[in-house]
Design a protein that fits this description.
This protein is mainly alpha-helical and 350 residues long. The chain is built from 15 helices and four strands. A two-stranded antiparallel ribbon has the order 1-2. Strands 3-4 form a two-stranded antiparallel sheet. The radius of gyration is 20 Å and the shape is globular.
Amino acid sequence: MPGGLGRVVRIPGTPISFRTHTRVLAVGVALLVVGFVLLVLAVGTGEYPIGFGDVVSTLLGGGDQGQRFIVETIRLPRALTALLVGAALGAAGAIFQSVTRNPLGSPDIIGFTSGASAGAVLQIVVFDGGAGPVAVGALVGGLGTAALVWLLAFKGGEGVQGYRLILIGIGISFVMVGVTNYLLTRARLEDAATANVWITGSLNGRGWDQVVPVAIALAVVLPLTFVLARELRMMEMGDDAAGALGVSVDRSRAGLLLLAVVLTAVATSSTGPVLFVALAAPQISRRLTRVTGPGVGSAALTGGVLLIASDFLAQRVFPDQQLAVGVVTGVLGGVYLIWLLWNEWRGNRA
């Protein structure tokens, strides 16, 4: 039942077990189906349309040479990047919000995305602006900002508290936005144009070089997160309660935040800063599943569906000129945030 204890499932031959609910499984299957349908639609539509069945046949190894080239080389990498980056951001957002026990505890708000943007723009403006170096610059910027926020939020004897992490992260975010803006004012015109495209968040021109790193990060981080699911759930009850139940709070929080930062940094390095997916996906997934707890898996599936749906809209709202997907997620996320704050305000007045 929603919000209940659910059913414990154990993986044979391993010490790993997890608790699940029928509704959670149903929502997960539905999200997988929706994600697959959106992927096929995204791959099959464009200047050279390919039928739904032909796309599925090509994905399974069929299709003629022209269809395989369009699907496998041109369109599929972009669609997969959208699904994987959305899943990474959704999972990261679920971890951040669970650890901080705050619905605003997402990498967009805390500043890690801004740090990745500053690192990428620094690489474009000062050093080499190639795709590989820019991705490395974003990765280093995101990880470096996370380390700085952690050090400033750490207080001896208390560790890192969620509210302190958010407040310091917001401050660091403004600093990183200022650094980015300064770099743009000092850049050459062509470098500034390249940087502006990147910091908007875009899936244009994405290939298998962007798919592989995010896929590897998800394959490594998600299983580790599921292993730490018990600690994550206990920490939502408060540090004292989690400590009384045998959880090493500071160590678990540091490990979980590191996993979330890696997902955020790798995702941002692949597409640029795609806003609000990490903020909205965990909360939407909780409303769909109606189950309390971190819900990292369902948040990842929701994030993937959100981003590929946003990219589908970005390519087709204005057929003559494609929008960057960050523009669409920013608009949709802003509307969602207003709706969320309005509901909270009405709930407090009731």
